[in-house]
Amino acid sequence: MSSAAASSPVPGGFGLRRALVRNRGALIAAAVLAILLFVVDWISAGPLTYFDVSFLSSGGATSALAAIGQTIVILSGGFDLSAGAVISLVNAVLASSMDPMAPGASILLWTTVGIGVGMAVGAFNGFFIAVLRMQPIVVTLSTMFILQGVTLLVMDKPGGFVSPDLGTFYLGDAIAGWLPMPLVVIGVVLLAWFWLKGTRFGTALYALGSDPESAASVGINVVLVRFAVYVIAGGCYGLAGVFISAQTGSGDPLVGNPLLLSMFAAVVVGGTRLGGGQGGPVGSVFGAYILMIVVNILLVLNVSAYYATIAEGTILVLAALAGSISHASVLAVQLRAARARLAAWRAGILPSQLERVDRRLKIAEPAHAQRSPASPRPAFHLRNAETLRYALPAYVCLLLIVLVTQIWLGRAILNPGYWNSLLVLSSFLAVLALGQGTVILTGGLDLSVPWTIGISGIILAGMVNGSDAALVYALPVVLVMACAIGFANGFGIVYLGISPIVMTLATNGILQGCALLYSQGTPAGFSSPMLRWVMTAKLAGLLTPIVLLMVVFVVAAVLLLGRTPFGRRVYGIGNGLRAARLSGIGVERTLILVYMLSAVCAAVVGVMLTGFSGQASLGMGDDYLLPSIAVVVVGGALITGGRGHYLGMLGGVLLLTALQMLLAGTTLPYATRAILYGLVVLGAVMALRERRLQ
């Protein structure tokens, strides 16, 4: 009896230790938050008051609510890039629907409207991801652009009206002087999560994130669980949109865009594992408040607000790195491999140090053996059947768009000016297609394209400032900087084991802050006359010089991906990383070169845009992220890598540019372009998926 009593604490202690390990990320985030609160109390003029706590709780509530939804998606093994756009849409819907002449507003009604809008978007995402089994990254990125267009249709500029009653309720006190309402709202959402976690759905959610195939094999309805995940997450984004509407008191169609980076950073800081199966929303709430307090500390120390995105991006990278450190992590494996290579080098047994002797067996050919006559070379359409199968639809659709343009607007088919404009406007995406397309061929994605374009154009314009002579050294500086950006992306992905989505998203945020710091919010300088001539002049009154340069570029791109060892290595990696390693491909070196190529292409586009418009501007690359992916997918490339041809991507470029020119000649609003881009990408991915399954 006594022995049994003595041994009883052991299971309890083991259970406690297991719980601590399982919730390590959230506990560490809570400890960091407590330290930061102590720092805030120390650097403030006086001790923290209830007003300070209430102010801090409302400042981080929107990010915390959105991070809860993003955490649920990531726990299932997915990603949701449309979260910020959902928040913007809910804000625009509320601000444009509330009547400023009405004496009061129903808090329950408008909260239900906001959550309902978010859940509807989540159902849209869930249908394509769960039912049609499409890639979450592509679906949610397309949804993001569709929602941005819809939001602009609802509200094309900041304004509108949000009832003060909404702010009074959500920003007030639940218990006067003791408990702020934002903490109550977050607490209620977390209680709902704890209830959900204890149900069969919660168990299925973690099982799905850990191993989808095993989850399906034990009878879990993977489609239903995955669909419900995006619906629930959309409801959280909708509630975050309601909360930010209460804070601002008005509408802004872009209010949710800056939240995407901080949202992912909060999830990672809170200890949720990217890839699913481990973590929870509690840590993400702590992570959201950690990021908010860090930004506030910078402001208290009189550090420029431009450092905010740099801090968020850096924290995201460090948190992702810290969360993945283990004996089996990519970083640990790379360190052990480096140690083994160093030992082999010291022993002189590296392959490059050994004498190169041909040790292959030589088999003598029998004297009576006769060489069979060489078989005739297959016809062109047989050799390139797969490429033609996926690339030709883009060119067929291009011809249809040109015919529609001729019928609707006239002066297209036989008008040299139309074709020159089409080729000039296509040149930007044609360059981006090489970089982003090469990344996609390896199974990755580069989300740092927008601000690589932006900072390249801003730095070039500032250095050149209208001087052709300065272009001689400014252009190499920009290209070297782009190489460094691409190397940083590739190094983080290859050697630190950070997800390409997270690494390039963090880099994009860091570059945004650097561009703001360099320009102080107002880019200076303008393009040199030579660069302006290349992008806008007319040779013989018909052809712009950039068109001739693009012909050379297209030839070089086709040869690079189709006729060089680098191109073969890219396709090998896309068709299977493990098989590529076993085949002797230098995977690490090739992937770093791939991301460097993508960054250089983005920098070249920044230079081209500066020459085309005459100067650089903040956000000049924002409109090129989805199109850079869309042209690759529309051109027949497989979003998971391994299949695609640059000529197909070029067809996608020409198709989308011709479509853009057609829309520009109509009376349709500008917002329809973003909607159309998103729908085109979804349609193309669906069509190519159906062909692949046949």
TrEMBL record:
The keyword Transmembrane applies. It comes from the Bacteria. GO terms for molecular function: transmembrane transporter activity. Its main location: membrane. Keywords: Cell membrane, Membrane, Transmembrane, Transmembrane helix. It is a multi-pass membrane protein. The keyword Cell membrane applies. GO terms for cellular component: plasma membrane. InterPro entries: ABC_transp_permease (IPR001851). This is ABC transporter permease. It comes from Mesorhizobium ciceri. The lineage of its organism: Bacteria, Pseudomonadati, Pseudomonadota, Alphaproteobacteria, Hyphomicrobiales.
